Amino acid sequence: MARAMEGKTIVIAGSRKLDEMTSLIARQGAQVVVRSLQGMTMFKEEEMEQELREVIAHQPDWFVFTTGIGTAALFAAADRLGIGKEFRETVRGARIAIRGYKTYSALKSEDLAPDVRDSDGTVRGLEEQLEEVNLQGARIWVQLHGEPAPNLVSFLEQKGAVSVHTLLPYLSVPPEMDTLEQLQREIEQETVHAICFTTAVQVRHLFAHAKEHSYTEQLREKLQGPVLAVSVGKVTSEALRQEQVTRIVAPENERMGAMIIEMTRYYEQQS
């Protein structure tokens, strides 16, 4: 009996656990190619000192934490700068809203608990929980990871926040242009059958390149047709839907192994 993905070429767009993912996919008969759309994520050490001291000086009403690694990085940076106690007191003196279970774990390790938590692991889910919260006149500091979040900032401003300041401890650097161009050709020529996206930023980098080179509509058509979009979970799926990709294969359990199992099931049902 033929394996579910016999003869198919699967793209891994991530940069982590490549050997593990390649092995799992290859067992189903597929060929694996890595086209990392992650780029580099760099910690902005020098900028953080000024940012953290400003946070402490301004004593905001709300903190919004959106990633576990970014949250942990802020507390670690404050400790290195010798202002860890002051930063923790500032956070404790404010109300806290969070997105994601890793963010919850990072705060729990600091003996902190959120006042508001997302409903489904997405920023949109956090916004839904904040809909009934009075933010009129609030001063809000938002921890981001990798890139700006204009939609979240706009939402908070529309809710009446008097100021929304963003902290970006990590900055996402775009992937190699050669990688983007190679993947574009493979998508256009239909020599790949599926793309496994493991973070939302990978989706955004691919579509940013498409917009810059005027093949956005073609990319959407390919992802609705011969090239399957596979997502590790809700946040990544949300990024795909924002780009008008509606056929998405994603697991309930947001893990890379579960994503590959779900993709295998999809191809089993198609065969």
Task: Write structural notes for this entry.
A 5-stranded parallel β-sheet has the order 2-1-10-11-12, with helices on both faces. The longest helix has 15 residues, at 256-270. Strand 7, helix 7 and strand 8 (163-167) form a beta-alpha-beta unit. It contains 12 helices and 12 strands. 47% of the residues lie in helices and 17% in strands. The mean pLDDT is 92. Helix 3 crosses helix 4, helix 3 runs parallel beside helix 5 and helix 9 (200-212) packs parallel to helix 11 (234-242). It has 271 residues and is of the alpha/beta class.
Query: Fraction of residues in helices?
Result: 40-55%
Question: What's the rounded overall pLDDT mean?
Answer: 92
Counting DSSP E segments of at least 2 residues, the number of strands comes to 12
Distance between the termini: 12 Å
Percent strand: 15-25%
